[in-house]
Amino acid sequence: MIRTRFAPSPTGFLHIGGARTALFSWAFARHHGGQFILRIEDTDVVRSTPEAVQAILDGMQWLGLTHDEGPFYQMQRMDRYREVIQTMLAAGTAYPCYTTPDELERMREAQRASGLKPRYDGTWRPEPGKTLPTPPAGALPVVRFRNPLDGVVAWDDLVKGRIEIANAELDDLVIARADGTPTYNFCVVVDDWEMGITHVIRGDDHVNNTPRQINILAALGAQVPLYAHLSMILGDDGQKLSKRHGAVSVMQYDDEGYLPEAVLNYLARLGWSHGDEEVFSMSQFCAWFDLDHITPSAAQFNTEKLNWLNAHYLKQADNERLAALVQPRLAARGVTVSASPSLAAICGLYKERVSNLNELTDAAEVFYIDLHPKAEILAQHLTPEALPALADFVAGIREVDWEVAAISALIKTCIGKHGLKMPKLAMPLRVLLTGQAQTPSVDALLALFPRELVLKRLAAAVPD
Ligand code: GLU
Questions:
Q1: What tens digit of pLDDT does each residue of 98-132 get?
Q2: Motif 'HIGH' region: which residue numbers (predicted)?
């Protein structure tokens, strides 16, 4: 049974890199009919906040990355970590160390001065035949992991290939602080072990932790999971992705009017490919997803492509769903939606022309507000030759069936009578109805409005 996990530290929002890690871990579990576990790594009590936990849960929910187990909170598992530390002390795979922070600092300075890599010197490390110093009275020790001295620790990274580190490079990691709290790498190890994680899929900023984690797992007699370290995501400009690049929080994409399926489809292609496929659903993605097709090189963000995907998914989206997404955006602007014109119908007509929900909201807003088109735009389109045709059109409104074909016929009659080309009448209609010169086809636009509202908006130009 495949078991993967997403293990964010709640020190900020769910960012794009984290969301991609979560997506790949989720899809790998889904592909194999396995389990996806959510674990909140909240042991950094200074930087972790409940708001950040909520932001992560909201982001995961918005994306629809559902977990099968959890969320587990590391702060609620402290007793268990302490127990494991006790077993390791008893087994001799960990030991108390009384070296003080001052002594450590002096040790490191001396090592640096002689051109050595700073590391713990093993003073308190038990060895066969070695006599340990006497613990200072009343001092509280840290607990260190007894890292193997020789050999290499190696793993076949499922993205990066084989990685080998000499144990001589690793000193004895502190696994519990003097106050007894377990340290970061240790909690990860205990959790990956006890949660039965088979595949650790995470960012490659954790590659340096992996050899230490593998050694501790081995000391615990635990099955070592397989590791897949994902390369980082660069911004459009090739620099490390940061706030400078605009939206980096997943929920900010929601604010900016992206649909979750567009963001997911976009993220899926950040460092993974399936032939030339660019547009696919999450069920398709889960069916295809494997770790073999993750590229080891960094992926580059491409906002244009994301915008293109968003426009694509907007066109596909059901009108009622779009209306439900646009309605709260209108409400946030203080605009109340009425039953007529129908918001779903407006969304249906405009979704072909917008690239995000905020643009769709802009388009819908003019239908529900007390519209005052700019004098300048009116002057440009309400030409003397247009006015008589417009007056005829207004006069005909009550006579026709209020639907696209009949409205279209009325427009044709009016321009025909005055020998005008279509835009001569269509443009004034557009600007009077919406304040904008660019709209979907004018007969369809007119049909969205209730007849009375059209009369009201045109009355401004054509008095009775
Ligand atoms: N909590 C770590 C982070 O947010 C991830 C740890 C892991 O995946 O092993 O970067």
A1: 999 999 999 999 999 999 989 999 999 999 999 99
A2: 8-18
